[in-house]
Amino acid sequence: METTATTTTTTAALETSDLTVRFGGHVAVNRVSCRFTPGEVTAIVGPNGAGKTTYFNLISGQIAASEGTVHLDGADITRMPVAERTRLGIGRAFQLTNLFPNLSVLENVRLVIQARRHRGFSLLSIADRQVALIEEAHEVLGAVKLEDQAAQKVTELSHGDQRKLEVALLMALDPRVYMFDEPTAGMSVDEAPVLLDLIAGLKADTGRTILLVEHKMDVIRSLADRIVVLHNGKLAADGAPDEVIASDVVQEAYLGRSAVDA
Amino acid sequence: MLYRALSGDFPRSVVLSVVLLAILVGLAFAPFLFPGTRSLETAARICIFIALVASYDLMLGYGGIVSFAHTVFFGIGAYGVALATANLGRGFDALLIGSLTGAVVAAVLALLVALFSLRVRAIFFAMITLAVASAVAVLVSQLSSITGGEDGLNLLIPRELTPAVKFAEERFLGVRLNGKLLNYYLVFFGSLALFLVLLRVVNSPFGRVLQAIRENDFRAEAIGYRVVIYRTVATCIAAVVASLAGSLFAIWLRYVGPDTTLSLEIMIDILLMVVIGGMGTMYGAVIGATLFVIAQNYLQNLMGAASEMTAAVPLLPHLLNPDRWLLWLGVLFVLSVYFFPTGVVGRLRGRA
Ligand SMILES: Nc1ncnc2c1ncn2[C@@H]1O[C@H](COP(=O)(O)OP(=O)(O)OP(=O)(O)O)[C@@H](O)[C@H]1O
Ligand SMILES: [Mg+2]
């Protein structure tokens, strides 16, 4: 089933209204109102320090909003703790790799699956015996091509493989809202496609809302149904990729830099 | 069978397996292998400290929680049985009721401390536990009508657990089959059970979450684990085990006082045992407690002997004077941390 970006009848899975956060005097995210619908990939772009990561932090709860609200399927989650938002279906991969460094690659993924299945309070069973969880973890590792490194410690992985694992944790969570924060940053040209294909695969699966912070224009062109531009914490543009890329604000504020990047 | 008993957490090193097996056999047959009151006292102490240190490691090594109140929970269990026997008489029922009440009180206190402070910051939790530890120590010495103050309390335990009762006239392998022997096996099997339960807990899905929290609490929360709740539960489990170990200790010594359970010195001993053995591995508790308690009990003797043997050499006898045993314990500790930064077990498992 295909859902087009312009369907008016679908309710927004995720919505922010006048979302704002101040750090001292600095307004990092300034009254951002935006709706994200299932089946849609929204690229969030903007120069360094525009507030993209901070906007993600407000949605997934790592930072408390100064003003405004975040709604998921109509329910106000603005004040909800991080773990509860995750349980409701908000998933996040981080810009700065954020893993369990001294555990094995497999264990990193297994922990996520265990969380999703609410098995964490099982005190007297043996974790290594829960074959179903372990198999599922191997499947996720297969999808990001990390199967061969399953037994390694995270600290032994290359940067590119750590980025893959970062995304694998989000895949293992299988949320309704996927938030990718520059997933391919620092990866080599031949490594990145694995992750981009995965994101493209998610798109085919309807019902998922995908937010993607990305600098590379070719990636945005191939994946995004819509582009949201943040600039100095404010929503500077929002629309179909072609329109947004052509608009003055983007030409000035953003693309001057990303042309070099991409 | 062995897999289930050890919860799939094998020593993974030949040397470690041999050492652990030697300790297990040594403790299981201590009354027969090492006759004499003093060595039996040492063996019982090792058993109890293995359980106590393992429970502390559940918090520190697995959960990354620093607490200075572990002796409080140890003390609650010890005073629990002491007060129960004082009020209910010298029966096994009093021991059971005292131990269980102690465990419940310990769990509730741990819950309060944890909920009050774990949601803030780890350092705050450490400070609160330090405050609780000193408050309890003051309270126990002030309420001398109940707790016996600094003098402590003597326990009236069932005769079957004292040397007064003989189960057989003749000796078995040169050992008197009396209540003291039974008491030792209560301590041994009690500690073993507590240890195996902890080993299971750290290898359970719950234990894995604790490790994840220790590694990266921020991400643990982001994948859906309520970090505060997990830390709180770990604190409560550690408190219950410490309390039960305290009950065993009081039953064994037939005495409880601030010096045997509550003192800051014991808290430091626990910390040293965890570090020497290796944090984040239950087997570290076994190695740490065994090495430390033996050193504590026999270093003085050893040094006395060494001092006499080196009497002819200048300076050495002074350095080896038994009164300086604490200094040498310190030296041993510094050396062990220097050479085994991940503890003896970490070194033996080759992850150092
Ligand atoms: N916790 C914080 N405390 C204070 N200032 C912050 C905090 N987090 C972010 N900022 C500031 O908010 C602004 C937005 O930062 P943010 O990381 O969201 O930018 P970004 O768009 O993700 O940039 P990049 O492309 O470099 O990742 C920056 O000026 C940053 O210094
Ligand atoms: Mg960013």
Can you walk me through this structure?
The complex is a heterodimer of chains A (262) and B (352). Chain A is α/β, with parallel strands linked by helices and 262 residues long. Chain A is built from nine helices and ten strands. Chain A has helices at residues 52-60, 82-88, 105-116, 131-143, 159-173, 192-204, 217-223, 241-246, 248-261; strands at residues 14-23, 26-36, 41-45, 67-72, 75-76, 90-93, 177-181, 209-213, 226-231, 234-239. Chain A has a six-stranded mixed β-sheet, with helices on both faces. Chain A has a four-stranded antiparallel β-sheet with strand order 2-1-4-5, with helices on one face. In chain A, a hairpin with a 2-residue loop joins strand 1 (14-23) and strand 2. In chain A, helix 3 crosses helix 4. The longest helix of chain A has 15 residues, at 159-173. Chain A is globular. Mean pLDDT of chain A is 89; it is low at 1-9 and 258-262. By secondary structure, chain B is mostly helical. Chain B has a single domain (2-351), classed as ABC transporter involved in vitamin B12 uptake, BtuC, CATH 1.10.3470. Chain B has helices at residues 2-5, 14-28, 30-33, 37-62, 70-88, 92-117, 122-142, 144-147, 179-202, 205-222, 227-253, 258-262, 264-277, 282-309, 316-319, 325-339, 343-348; strands spanning 153-154, 255-256. Chain B has a two-stranded antiparallel sheet with strand order 1-2. In chain B, helix 4 runs parallel beside helix 9 (179-202), helix 6 crosses helix 7 and helix 13 packs across helix 14. Chain B starts with a helix and ends with a helix. Classes of the chains: A alpha/beta (262), B mainly alpha (352). Chain A binds chain B through residues 60, 62, 81-84, 86-87, 92, 94, 98-103, 107, 110-112, 114-116, 119-130, 169, 173, and chain B through 4, 7-8, 200-201, 203-209, 211-212, 215-216, 218-227, 230, 233, 237. Bound molecules: adenosine-5'-triphosphate (ATP) and magnesium ion. Adenosine-5'-triphosphate is lined by residues 23, 28, 46, 48-54, 95 of chain A.
